[in-house]
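Journal club prep — side note

Before the paper discussion, L.F. wants everyone to see what a predicted structure for a comparable chain looks like in token form. Sequence:
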Amino acid sequence: MVVNPTPGASASVPQGAAEAKTRVAKNVIFINGDGMGAATRQAARLHLAGLGGQLAMDRLPVSGQLTTDPDDPKAVVTDSAAAASAWATGEKTYNGAISVDVDGNPLATLGSQAKAAGKATGLVTTAQVTDASPAAFFANTANRSAQDEIARQYIEVSKPDVILGGGEDWWLPAGKAGAFRDKPAEDPSEGSKGTKGDLVKKARKAGYSYVNSADQLRRAGSGKLLGLFANEEMFQQRPEGQGDVYDPVVGLSTMTTKALGTLDRNKKGFFLMVEEEGVDEFAHANNGARVLQSMQELEKTVAVARAYVATHPDTLLVVTGDHETGGLAVEEPDTGDESGTGISAEDGPFTVRGSRKTFFIDWTTSGHTGVDVPVTAVGPLSDRFTGKHPNTHVYDVLRQALTRR
């Protein structure tokens, strides 16, 4: 099985120790491969870069590990909400929480702190723009499912300058379909469901340009930008052959390019949070082919970010995952080791680029696991990611980068 690799992963970035140890960053680009663990990166490396190759994200000169456990009364394995809240606030919290502490009290977020420092802010994702990971940087709510409330906070409270991704359903009241029709054939459960009024209209009144297609995004001007390109996620996450589709209206790399071009106009710099959600969602479905396809788009996005850093060395770029999903393992082809059907079945064979060799992906769960996740980085303060740290360490580094003057 082949997911066509994308060449060009060798774009240069500053490699010297001086950049890594510089204490001041004008810009921060933080990229989350949701559900991406070390084995996910290894599978993508074999398939997209080959045995002697490296992913763009693994060519960043600084690397380390992050632990991911939450502060949850019942769980030892994190969800995306608790993990992203740890990144965005520096505090551990319970699963389902969006930047509130264990008692439900709101916490200051990196998004609001960057804005207070005069920087432009933005989020780009292939999930709903109000999904847990981006929400943690720009909203506070005791329950991640309150996505319409999160959207309201974006427009009325945190006011990120760029908001690009899926999730139109949460911006419009029930019964009022937008650019994407209610109850589409590919997923009849989708449809407008907001309870906060017409938030697209409110966004326009607040000065946002609203776009919902690739052409509209391309032609959008330089001001505040809201782009919603799907009812929910920008793909259909199902097991192989059961309606699984990864074909976003606009790719993550394209959205990231537009966001960078928009945010770059702020003379004081910017904070941009970028997320590829497909890695996680397709790993939940134990769909190895779509995981690799999502990783390919994530690689293209990292290449976009690295190209920006190459001409803007005062930019800190960080690539990591909030947790691992699926218990993914890279295995040799071995019919005697086939683990059956359903959850924990094997996927493959997948090709190794530039080789006749193949590999299989084996799964141990359809949920998250508690393993450490890799982090790679370049730019000012990136040296602080060397070693093993709790995921709250991301907040410590990014806050210093964003607010130090």
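L.F.'s comment for the group: The chain is about 30% helix and 20% strand. Keep this in mind when we get to the figures.
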